[in-house]
Amino acid sequence: MPLEIKKVGVIGAGQMGNGIAHVCALAGYDVMLNDADPDRVRSGLATINGNMAKQVAKGTVTEEDRQQALARISGVTTIDGLAECDLVIESATEREEVKRKIFSDLCAALRPDALLASNTSSISITRLAASTDRPERFIGIHFMNPVPLMELVELVRGIATDDDTFELSKKFVTRLNKTYAVAEDFPAFIVNRILLPMINEAIYTLYEGVGSVDAIDRAMKLGANHPMGPLQLADFIGLDTCLAIMQVLHEGLADSKYRPCPLLVKYVEAGWLGRKTQRGFYDYRGEKPVPTR
Ligand SMILES: CC(=O)CC(=O)SCCNC(=O)CCNC(=O)[C@H](O)C(C)(C)COP(=O)(O)OP(=O)(O)OC[C@H]1O[C@@H](n2cnc3c(N)ncnc32)[C@H](O)[C@@H]1OP(=O)(O)O
Ligand SMILES: NC(=O)C1=CN([C@@H]2O[C@H](COP(=O)(O)OP(=O)(O)OC[C@H]3O[C@@H](n4cnc5c(N)ncnc54)[C@H](OP(=O)(O)O)[C@@H]3O)[C@@H](O)[C@H]2O)C=CC1
Question: Which terminus of the chain has fewer Cβ atoms in its 10 Å neighbourhood, N or C?
């Protein structure tokens, strides 16, 4: 029987994982949200609740839809808890060895016909797929942050991804009310191949003293009509994720133009990862974000 996606598993209950679970539940899928840390599952579910409440307040979601969607989401703390899923989307930390280990544990628990997807920002889909028992049923489904508000999803086929998986993924993304762009499987795909070097350049601009945090963000918001300044956006994405993407670009394309800015490395080494740790290019611990340089 052809596969019909009804139950979706999401691994990693961080900012992207909770957003993916959020939009899947609103679209009528049953959702199992997993994280290695039970506290993360709890805080992921609380974030979804709060974000759906914002949508109700704005009138984009009804209170009834919110209640029904929340009832469709369960938190699970073991990979075995995802055994019944038809599609599992991995959205854990942007580190290849972390993702490989997850897929290896997951394949042992899942039905052979279930689909696997990664929300990776940059890592080779072909390489991740090759580490599983089903490279033909593996695809990149790359959501944008914040997931409930952003329209685009990149679909990335690995070399072995079959047509059935691609077609099912297109239908899935369309049912989420998202628009997809198909990207070839090269480092960081389309959006991040273009966006992250711009962010990295903004950090070099700060590092070389061309402008302050405030001046750089103001310049790009008011001078190029970007909704967020590049340093604000870097904090929003997470500086660890930004650095991981630049490293994949630098290693994968072997071009010095992708060299991560040493200041980005320093912030990550300090554990200043942006909004998620309350400090990055801005300090978020007070009432208003304050530039840290
Ligand atoms: C790294 C990767 O791999 C790929 C990536 O994702 S790269 C990052 C891509 N994303 C971007 O570039 C985002 C750039 N920023 C933006 O587009 C905008 O700033 C934004 C859409 C995030 C917010 O837009 P804004 O006009 O400032 O709106 P803002 O007032 O903050 O929020 C709009 C509404 O959505 C709500 N909202 C914000 N986040 C939300 C969420 N996660 N879920 C639900 N609602 C949310 C807000 O509460 C707000 O509601 P009200 O209007 O009732 O206050
Ligand atoms: N941030 C962004 O703007 C975007 C990110 N992405 C991609 O999405 C993925 C997740 O990013 P994001 O949500 O921002 O990151 P976060 O740091 O917010 O969340 C990652 C989550 O994964 C958890 N995790 C780590 N290891 C495991 C594991 N073995 N099993 C289950 N969960 C695990 C982490 O737990 P703990 O903290 O306890 O380790 C954390 O809760 C990355 O691949 C990233 O590149 C894609 C699009 C946009």
Answer: N
